[in-house]
Design a protein that fits this description.
The complex is a heterodimer of chains A (614) and B (74). In chain A, helix 5 runs antiparallel to helix 7 and helix 11 runs antiparallel to helix 23. Chain A has 3 domains: 188 residues, Rossmann fold (3-Layer(aba) Sandwich); 188 residues, no CATH class; 167 residues, no CATH class. Chain A contains 27 helices and 10 strands. Chain A has 614 residues and is an alpha/beta fold. Chain A is elongated. Chain B is of the alpha+beta class. Chain B has one domain: SH3 type barrels. Helix content of chain B is 18%, strand content 34%. Chain B has 2 helices and 5 strands. The chains are: A alpha/beta (614), B alpha+beta (74). At the A-B interface, helix 3, helix 8, helix 13 and strand 10 of A face helix 1, strand 2, strand 4 and helix 2 of B. Strand 10 of chain A pairs antiparallel with strand 4 of chain B, so a sheet runs across the interface.
Chain lengths: 614, 74
């Protein structure tokens, strides 16, 4: 057993706990599996100034530790961790990050935390004291320490000395018996109150809320914000993607210099065709992450939950389910963990099961490629279609939730009523957001360099390995390759959707990672058109011929493929997250089955109708 | 009178929380506790939640829950 102290960071949501934790760890925390509690928490090892070793660990945000807490919710997980740590042999230090503008509520949590680890050294880190001061109020930290029987340190994640101060306080903290106090009385005593200033954060928030939560304009504003964010992803990134695409072509133009060999083709058609095509979509993903982080950090998401609650009830969910559903637009895996804020087990399960329908960023490359190939004269029109696809994902998710709430996820029959804190609206700190975007970009690039690179090379090999002799003089190798045979075997299933063997291969590949759809197309057409002039994938797709010599793809096929990608849960990581969170492999298989069935039906309907119209 | 019946802009004091211990404890942890002063800031349209200001925080409170919180005018 390690004798390093365990330093548990806990606090109410929006107290600034994770920002402070990140400032302390320099964002180098790793995700660890907390011993005895099979839940991922961020941890970071440090050496305290006194030379003692310590592990800092970031608990989920919570409002309380006492009472009946639903199993698997953030609050219950945090309580399990604190209890487990308090019983363990490692010395425990509790750091509670507390928003000074919500001191009484924070102190109520302090009392509950002290009941859990009575003698453990306890540091109360007060944040947002600047907001209190902006209201003309002040908190007396020394007096607070005396009355509440804890060590107090006043700090802020953005302060340059935040880490030093908090770590110093942790090092100096000594075990002290829990003191009985009345949180409200103590808060009243140590904060000098002042009426809200017209220029203070409260008044400013109230003024913004008058517009953002306006009875008639609130929802239109919300919808505009969402649509603008998703449209911006396409509009802003369009020129960047074109630029990257051009660079990729210049590399392909090196072919004559590299010769005609095996290695050159593998490098250019396989590796570059696959990875390069996918990497070109990096800007979209970064813009999306920045947009979502800005919304979250500003406090607007709670407003959105307030506005949407009534409408969501019609689908058996509550307004709070909006946050995990929005998170799902970046990636379903963290979104599934984010459902831990939902207390109602039925609502939580339904939300988990429909998150895979949200348009995650891995779908972006497919959306972009198909839209710009088959539907896109103007950038505005392309952005509008993409936004429509996101809306389609959300709507089908809501309808699915309604059905699930009446069947698989009945729970106790109805959603628990909303109870949600509306945090002050804050100007987001830019650094953590940019850092998050950077991390996301790195992950994406790494995935392109590993999963997508190896898959592209495997595909290239399969496209260059023949299964049979030429049926006629000069039949291209690719047409009689292993890959083509495999794709053709699926054609009976996908013919009603208008897909051919090439798309089928993409669908098989994209089961591991959706971006592979685009990578696969890049490789297939790289191999097929190796002897032609280099051209953007968009043009190759338009020019692609079917066995009868007519264009292989048109708008009906593209529309069907888009619909398929909106609905199908083509993601192993998501399925394993569903299994982990619901502790049921059956439910994970259910997600796979229902989304694929839905995708096939909707894509077939789209293709058939579009063909009639065309 | 319940919190759900409060007029917009009106202030009141909480006198009773819902019976079931879990909901009551949740309300308390959010600052909606007996003796707390509350003010109705706005209601979401079509029977949506209420925007309520209490001592330190502002809350979104579902209408069904608000109908189970008893208040008296101050």
């Amino acid at each position: 057993m390690s004798d390093a102290s365990l330093v548990a960071f806990l606090g109410r949501p929006n107290a600034g706990k994770s920002s402070l934790f990140n400032a302390l760890t320099g964002r180098r925390a790793r995700v660890g599996n907390f011993p005895g509690v099979t839940v991922d928490v961020e941890e970071h090892d440090v050496t305290l100034p006194s030379g003692r070793a310590a592990t800092l660990c970031d608990l989920p945000g919570l409002h309380r530790l006492a009472g009946e807490l639903g199993e698997g919710t953030d609050e219950e997980i945090a309580r399990r961790i604190v209890d487990h740590a308090a019983e363990g042999e490692r010395p425990l230090v509790i750091v509670q990050v507390c928003d000074a503008t919500r001191l009484a509520l924070g102190l109520a949590l302090t009392r509950q935390a002290r009941d859990r680890g009575p003698a453990a050294p306890f540091v109360l880190a007060l944040t947002h004291a600047d907001e209190l001061e902006a209201e003309g109020a002040r908190v007396d930290a020394a007096r607070l320490a005396r009355l509440a029987g804890v060590d107090v340190v006043v700090t802020h994640a953005a302060a340059p000395d935040a880490a030093e101060k908090v770590i110093g306080a942790v090092d100096a903290a000594r075990p002290s018996p829990a003191v009985d106090f009345d949180p409200d009385a103590v808060a009243r005593e140590v904060v000098t109150r002042a009426p809200a200033r017209p220029s203070g954060p409260r008044a400013r928030t109230a003024a913004w809320d008058r517009a953002l939560l306006h009875p008639a304009l609130g929802l239109p504003i919300f919808l505009t914000v969402m649509a603008a964010m998703f449209a911006a992803v396409f509009l802003v990134s369009d020129p960047v993607t074109t630029l990257l695409d051009g660079g990729m072509q210049r590399l392909t133009a090196l072919r004559p210099r590299l010769g005609d060999g095996f290695a050159a083709s593998m490098l250019l058609d396989g590796a570059l065709g696959g990875v390069g095509t996918v990497l070109a979509f990096l800007p979209q993903i970064v813009i999306l992450i920045v947009g979502m982080e800005l919304l979250e950090a500003s406090g607007y998401l709670a407003r959105a939950a307030f506005l949407l609650d009534r409408a969501f009830r019609g689908f058996g969910l509550g307004g709070k389910a909006f946050v995990p559903l929005l998170t799902g637009h970046a990636c379903a895996v963290p979104a599934i963990s984010a459902t831990r804020v939902l207390r109602d087990p039925g609502e939580r399960l339904a939300t988990i099961l429909v998150i895979p329908l949200m348009g995650c960023s891995a779908r972006l490359p497919v959306y972009t490629l198909l839209i710009s190939t088959f539907f896109g004269e103007s950038a505005v029109r392309r952005a509008a279609i993409a936004t429509g696809l996101y809306a389609a994902g959300v709507l089908s998710g809501l309808v699915a939730a309604r059905v699930l709430r009446a069947s698989v996820a009945r729970g106790n029959g109805r959603a628990l009523p909303l109870l949600l804190e509306m945090p002050l609206l804050r100007r987001p700190m830019l650094r953590p957001i940019l850092h998050r975007a950077w991390r996301e970009a790195k992950d994406f690039t790494r995935r392109a360099g590993s999963v997508i690179l190896s898959a592209s090379i495997i595909l290239w090999v399969l496209l260059n390995t023949a299964v049979r002799e030429p049926a006629y003089e000069g039949e291209p190798l690719i047409d009689r390759s292993v890959a083509a045979a495999a794709g053709r075997a699926l054609e009976p299933v996908t013919r009603p959707l208008g897909f051919d063997w090439r798309i089928n291969l993409g669908l098989v590949g994209s089961f591991g990672a959706r971006e592979l759809m685009v990578g696969t197309m890049g490789v297939i057409f790289g191999v097929e058109d190796a002897d032609k002039e280099p051209a953007p994938l968009v043009e190759k797709l338009r020019a692609a011929k079917g066995p009868d010599g007519r264009p292989a793809y048109g708008p009906p096929t593209a529309a069907a493929l888009l619909v398929f990608f909106v609905l199908a849960c083509q993601c192993i990581s998501t399925l394993s997250a569903v299994r982990r969170e619901t502790r049921s492999a059956k439910l994970a298989l259910f997600v796979l089955a229902y989304t694929y069935a839905l995708a096939w039906l909707a894509a077939a309907a789209t293709y058939q109708v579009a063909r009639l119209l065309a | 009178m319940t919190l759900a019946e409060l007029a917009r802009g009106a202030a009141a004091r909480v006198v009773a929380l819902p019976d079931d211990a879990d909901t009551a404890s949740q309300c308390q942890s959010m600052g909606l506790q007996i003796g707390a002063s509350v003010e109705l800031v706005r209601r979401a349209p079509f029977g949506g939640p209420l925007h309520v200001r209490t001592g330190e925080v502002e809350l979104a409170v579902g209408r069904e829950l608000a109908a189970r919180v008893v208040v008296e005018s101050t």
